[in-house]
Specification:
6 helices
Length: 154
Amino acid sequence: MRVQFNRPVASPGLSASVGQILDVPEDEALRRIELGHCVALDQPKEGLGKRLRRVLGGKPAADPPGEEPSDRWTVERLKAWAADHAIDLGATSKKADILAAIEAAQTEPTDKALAELSVEELRDYADEQDIALPEDGDQAELLAAIEAALQERA
């Protein structure tokens, strides 16, 4: 995982100066991020299906154990997590306010809609949801088929 160090680090297996960017094994990177030594520059992005389920259902995304934001995280890590999950924090800078914004974003539906997705993204989502789509459908036809299938399931 690529990280940028915000403090000097010197240990038998790793040394870095302030501002230095390094590729670090993920477990080591997460430990260093938790300690406040660095911030993540690239983290795995939430999959399309997961994003859409969160957006469409207005339910919290299910992240792997240990990846839920908490008051033990640094402000930098919380901000990075929020950015990776497309959560707008605005000018929020206090840890408690950031956590509250993350919680609100996870429990409230967003303004995003299926209509904003490309034909390819709609097809990917339909595949993940086992929804049959017309072979040659345009965006409007695919959208209608997905929405109809989701209504039937509800």
